[in-house]
Amino acid sequence: MAAAEPVGAPAGGNCSLAGGGSVPVLFCFSVFARPSSVPHGAGYELLIQKFLSLYGDQIDMHRKFVVQLFAEEWSQYIDLPKGFLVNERCKVRLVPLQIQMTTLGNLTPSSTVFFCCDMQERFRPAIKYFGDIISVGQRLLQGARLLGIPVIVTEQYPKGLGSTVQEIDLTGAKLVLPKTKFSMVLPEVEAALAEIPGVRSVVLFGVETHVCIQQTALELVGRGLEVHIVADATSSRSMMDRMFALERLARTGIIVTTSEAILLQLVADKEHPKFKEIQNLIKGTEACIMTFNYSEMAAQPCISETIKVNSTPNPLLKQEYGALAYFPLSTWKILHSRQR
């Protein structure tokens, strides 16, 4: 339901004009009813924000919703009237429609922002294939600069963990922010997002997959944004943690993809003025088989369908994939980068 311009309380509604300040409102969702308040004169958008703050962890953001108002004259809920303003104590509810929205995953530069999460020096010896994700992360940031896409960067407790690695060029980043919270969704980040008109999609990469990346992705989805996690630019200390995090996130509707897919989707056409430059970025690195700590996985009793990599060529690995590729747990393929 599109937000209507608040032009005044409709005639015949259950809200009458009152003074300034806040107005008590009962917010209902599913079987829940929570009293709260909104500023006098609040419209559709503020009501939606309040619903998200009260029920964000329970709302499936991949569905369509309608806001309804309890009308005394009908003794039942009606769809929120056009131009509705909260001027008096009232009761509203958020109703999910039965048709579920499909997450298509379309990306355009004008509606996309890149999030680079905690690519810091102290993580270098601990994170698996850190060199690979630095290389791919730098390629993504170069692509963002070419396409004019805003970049938001965080650093987890830089006093103790150091700054972003020198290989990552942060020239032109919209925001570089220290944090202690695991998620990147901080008030400063939310304010920066609000300054970007029409932002719909976040491309997210960095470390660690099962902690900061996972928590950031879930918070962003809870705020109505579509999240694309770049599998070949995110890792953890443990491949087990990484795999299960990506599996969980994919099942929630978050898009797990690769850097090449992201960059080519953003240019979309061979005739794009930046296509040649993006193509040259992509040609910098390609895929091959990498060393893998098989014993770390094999020791887990829950893993029964692991592909063991040894000196014998594996026919499942003939195709080329990006570094640290993601696959469902039933068909693991262990891969990494090489020069073409």
Which series of helices and strands comes N to C?
EEHEEEEHEHEHEHEHEHHEHE
Instruction: Please report the total strand number as a whole number.
Output: 13
Provide the structure class.
alpha/beta
Bin the helical content. Answer: 25-40%
Q: pLDDT average, as an integer?
A: 80
Cα(first) to Cα(last) distance is: 49 Å
Question: Rg from C-alpha positions?
Answer: 23 Å
**Count of DSSP helices?**
9
Strand content: 15-25%
Tell me about the biggest sheet?
6 strands, parallel
Q: How are the strands of the biggest sheet laid out side by side?
A: 8-7-6-9-10-11
Detail the poorly predicted runs. 1-19, 286-340
Shape type = elongated
List keywords for this structure.
340 residues, alpha/beta, 6-stranded parallel beta sheet, 5-stranded mixed beta sheet, 9 helices, 13 strands, elongated, disordered C terminus, Isochorismatase domain-containing protein 1, Isochorismatase-like_sf
Question: What do these coordinates show?
Answer:
The chain has helices at residues 44-55, 130-147, 158-161, 187-194, 209-222, 239-251, 259-267, 275-282, 294-298; strands spanning 22-29, 32-39, 63-71, 76-79, 90-100, 112-117, 151-156, 175-179, 201-207, 226-235, 255-257, 286-288, 336-338. It has 340 residues and is an alpha/beta fold. The strands form 3 sheets. It has a 6-stranded parallel sheet, with helices on both faces. It has a 5-stranded mixed sheet with strand order 2-1-5-3-4, with helices on one face. Strand 3 and strand 4 (76-79) form a beta hairpin. Helix 7 (259-267) packs antiparallel against helix 8 (275-282).
